[in-house]
């Protein structure tokens, strides 16, 4: 952390030409302007003041060091009863331990922890967090130890300091950065305040990055963009997130930043349409006797840039939004009613995040209204409490771990009064972010630092979360009857774009390897189906432990947990990647190619000579390939895979040609028994038909009339008035397969029925 310093006199440093100062003008940096503009900003004048005081040393005035006075004033504004003695002791330890250390700008190093603490104080952090922020670099950069911090300030402060302390490159080498973030995220899972301190630390370092080499500026900015900005978004700390975005924008895209900054400054000081609309909104709400504060909230630079890219041109109304603050939730809807009555609403812009909050605690009503001149004003309506949470996220919650009586178990007073806690006194994190639980779960199974680092960036790239309602899970017993194996219902949080495969691994972990199908909102769906917010999901699980995922599942996953689990299984079962995995390794098409109990005779588990098959590899376990589901009297061949298993394919299966071309040696296999009659087998059929009503019902009726049971079915979307049905069927006798296929072909509209292995090439050629 100490390396990220700058020279404040550098005219091109982001701290000088940066977005936070230029966005709203110098007059917007004061506390009164914070209230007027609706976005809290750290006072740069306050930073200069504590910097000058730090140069004079820790001389006390009325018991409080000069450099700490401004922090204390801001902190008392949010927590009037805070005991500042703990902060004073923490500052004294930080100042004495950092004494003699300088930032690259030449300033005393103590100015950095002071600035980080002031950022958090502005956002309303409680005393324990501020104490830890003052000490956050002491263990990393000085002789102070965690034991010393624990003795003097309690275990809670010690935990926060340890959580943000970097790992040494001497010990971890190139893995130091990803492993540091892993350590920090694990600590955040127990206490979200760890990440709050890290975000404030990175914000100050980004503001003062100007004296670093350009290549190092770029590297730090990219990590900030890929990891810390998404984390700020997920924790709801919009005040830090938006300024970090602007600072990264200035470093990584200097030309676009300069253009956007010039555009914003070009409109500064001019009366705009938002001022006129805001004044009229105040009048309308006054006449309706609604007590509300109406503000003009400027967009930050990145937001303006996005608007410019989306609309091509930016008007004065696009440079900000109206912010209406009220006292109660009901007043939000009253304001909405008045605005939609007195202005022309843009219906497509309405969103209700009060009834349905975002996953990062954000609540607000969003709408847009236009005046008589056609100027459109995007409007946010929320309570003052919602606004504090929208800006500061988890920081606005105070100490989420304080006991119900408001006391601070660490001994640092000033914990949030009324902080939620369990009835038994155990700690409760009121945010309980589902994304963090998922992240912590998959990182445990990712020991490799490079894989963790890549997966972390991919996970954080998901910018929205959905909630899926999960009904009872179950499995098909081979007769078409679903047997439940997971009682009750619940919800699971997933990133937007997640599929049934992602949901299966989120619910069952490694047990999702045996998933063979799903019902979404009561209808049979493919495992590749993308889920939407509020969907009801019912997963079907195979009772056969030999079932496993298909390589195709990787094409339909969005969560690292699912990708890592599937990849581990495929690595342990290399034959599956060539299409010869367990028969249960159904592809996401939802065919659910898995063996039921009745298939045991056909597949055999009694060595190289079974009741159904014999092979030239004595003692091998025999299983049928799920890609072509051979049945007597098909010509078959086998291939040996890991674990002494022989997977048997139809001789005409495309996988056989690929395996032979790769140099794999086939293993002879043959059906045994009189007339090659095998009792109980499984087969996959593809029916090509013209689209018409009731086709699915007629086909399943024909299948049932032949005594076959539907294990799984999938229907592809119609194409050129044609449709393809794929059925995995359990036949009581393999000899009945020809008559079953004839019966299916006789169904009106069906023009062909093929075995799955042949369909992969023949049907594709026809389409």
The percent of residues in helical segments reads 40-55%
* β-sheet strand percentage: 15-25%
Q: How many angstroms does the end-to-end distance come to?
A: 60 Å
Count of strand segments: 24
Helix/strand-derived class?
alpha+beta
Q: Could you tell me the radius of gyration in angstroms?
A: 32 Å
Shape category: globular
Helix-strand layout with pairing:
Elements: H1 14-17, H2 19-22, H3 31-37, H4 44-55, E1 60-61, E2 64-65, H5 69-78, H6 85-98, H7 111-122, H8 127-134, H9 138-141, H10 146-153, H11 155-164, H12 169-172, H13 176-190, H14 193-207, H15 214-234, H16 238-252, H17 254-267, H18 273-287, E3 293-298, H19 301-311, E4 320-326, H20 329-342, E5 344-345, E6 351-352, E7 365-370, E8 376-383, H21 384-392, H22 434-444, H23 449-460, E9 465-470, E10 473-476, E11 482-486, E12 490-495, H24 500-508, E13 515-520, E14 523-525, E15 536-541, H25 560-572, H26 600-603, E16 613-615, E17 621-624, E18 636-641, E19 645-650, H27 654-661, E20 666-671, E21 679-690, H28 695-705, E22 709-715, E23 722-733, H29 737-745, E24 750-755, H30 756-766
Parallel strand pairs: 4-8, 9-15, 17-19
Antiparallel strand pairs: 1-2, 3-4, 5-7, 6-7, 7-8, 9-12, 10-11, 13-14, 13-15, 16-20, 18-19, 18-20, 21-23, 21-24, 22-23
Describe the protein's architecture and organization:
This protein is α+β, with helices and mostly antiparallel strands and 767 residues long. Helices cover 41% and strands 17% of the residues. The protein is built from 30 helices and 24 strands. The strands form six sheets. Strands 3, 4, 5, 6, 7 and 8 form a six-stranded mixed sheet that branches. Strand 13 and strand 14 form a beta hairpin. The N terminus and C terminus are likely disordered.
């Amino acid at each position: 952390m100490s390396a990220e310093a700058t020279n404040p006199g550098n005219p091109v440093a982001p701290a000088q030409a940066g977005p936070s100062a230029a966005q709203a003008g110098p007059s917007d940096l004061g506390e009164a302007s914070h209230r007027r503009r609706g976005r809290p900003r750290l006072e740069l004048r306050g930073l200069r003041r504590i910097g000058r005081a730090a140069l004079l040393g820790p001389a006390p005035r009325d018991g409080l060091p000069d450099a700490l006075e401004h922090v204390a004033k801001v902190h008392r504004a949010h927590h009037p009863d805070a005991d500042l003695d703990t902060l004073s002791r923490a500052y004294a330890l930080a100042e004495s331990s950092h004494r003699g250390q300088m930032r690259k700008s030449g300033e005393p190093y103590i100015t950095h922890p002071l600035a980080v603490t002031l950022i958090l104080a502005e956002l309303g952090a409680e005393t324990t967090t501020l104490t830890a922020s003052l000490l956050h670099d002491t263990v990393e950069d000085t002789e102070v130890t965690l034991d010393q911090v624990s003795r003097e300030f309690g275990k809670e402060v010690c935990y926060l300091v340890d959580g943000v302390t970097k790992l040494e490159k001497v010990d971890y080498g190139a893995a130091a950065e990803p492993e540091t973030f892993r350590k920090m995220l694990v600590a955040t899972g127990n206490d979200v305040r760890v990440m709050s301190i890290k975000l404030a630390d990175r914000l100050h370092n980004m503001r003062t990055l100007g004296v670093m080499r350009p290549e190092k500026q770029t590297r730090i900015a990219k990590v900030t963009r890929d990891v810390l900005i998404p984390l700020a978004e997920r924790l709801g700390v919009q005040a830090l997130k938006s300024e970090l975005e602007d600072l990264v924008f200035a470093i990584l895209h200097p030309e676009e930043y300069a253009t956007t900054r010039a555009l914003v400054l070009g409109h500064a000081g001019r009366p705009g349409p938002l001022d006129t609309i805001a004044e009229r909104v105040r009048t309308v709400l006054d006449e309706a006797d609604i007590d509300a504060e109406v503000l003009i909230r400027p967009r930050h630079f990145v937001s303006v840039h996005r608007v410019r890219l989306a609309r091509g041109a930016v008007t004065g109304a696009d440079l900000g939004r109206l912010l209406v603050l009220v006292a109660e939730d009901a007043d939000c809807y009253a304001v909405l009613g008045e605005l939609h009555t007195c202005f022309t609403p843009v219906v497509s812009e309405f969103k209700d995040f009060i009834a349905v909050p975002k996953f990062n605690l954000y609540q607000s009503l969003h709408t847009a209204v236009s005046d008589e001149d056609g100027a459109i004003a995007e409007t946010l309506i929320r309570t003052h409490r919602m606004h504090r949470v929208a800006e500061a996220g988890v920081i606005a919650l105070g100490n989420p771990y304080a006991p119900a009586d408001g006391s601070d178990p660490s001994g640092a007073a000033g914990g949030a009064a009324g902080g939620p806690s369990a009835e038994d006194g155990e700690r409760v994190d009121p945010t309980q972010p589902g994304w963090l639980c998922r992240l912590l779960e998959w990182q445990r199974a990712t020991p490799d630092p490079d894989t963790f680092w890549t997966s972390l960036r991919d996970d954080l790239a998901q910018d929205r979360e959905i909630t899926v309602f999960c009904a009872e899970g179950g499995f098909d017993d081979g007769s078409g009857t679903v047997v439940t194996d997971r009682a009750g219902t619940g919800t699971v949080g997933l990133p937007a774009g997640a599929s049934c495969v992602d949901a299966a691994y989120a619910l069952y972990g490694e047990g999702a390897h045996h998933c063979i199908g799903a019902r979404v909102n009561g209808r049979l769906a493919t495992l590749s189906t993308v889920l939407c917010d509020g969907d009801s999901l019912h997963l079907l699980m195979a009772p056969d432990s030999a079932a496993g995922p298909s390589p195709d599942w990787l094409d339909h996953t969005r969560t690292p947990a699912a990708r890592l689990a599937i990849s581990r299984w495929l690595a342990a079962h290399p034959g599956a990647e060539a299409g010869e995995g367990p028969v249960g390794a159904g592809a996401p098409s939802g065919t659910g190619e898995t063996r039921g109990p009745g298939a045991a005779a056909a597949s055999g588990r009694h060595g190289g000579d079974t009741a159904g098959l014999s092979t030239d590899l004595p003692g091998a376990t025999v299983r049928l390939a799920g890609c072509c589901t051979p049945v007597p009297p098909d010509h078959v061949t086998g291939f040996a895979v890991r674990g002494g298993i022989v997977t048997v394919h139809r001789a005409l299966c495309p996988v056989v040609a690929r395996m032979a071309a790769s140099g794999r040696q086939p293993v002879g296999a043959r059906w045994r028994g009189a007339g090659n009659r095998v009792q109980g087998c499984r087969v996959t059929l593809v029916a090509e038909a013209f689209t018409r009503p009731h086709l699915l019902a007629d086909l399943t009726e024909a299948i049932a009339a032949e005594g076959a049971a539907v294990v799984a079915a999938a229907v592809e979307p119609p194409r050129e008035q044609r449709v393809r049905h794929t059925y995995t069927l359990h036949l009581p006798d393999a000899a009945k397969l020809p008559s079953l296929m004839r019966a299916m072909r006789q169904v009106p509209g069906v023009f062909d029925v093929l075995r799955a292995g042949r369909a992969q090439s023949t049907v594709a050629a026809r389409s």
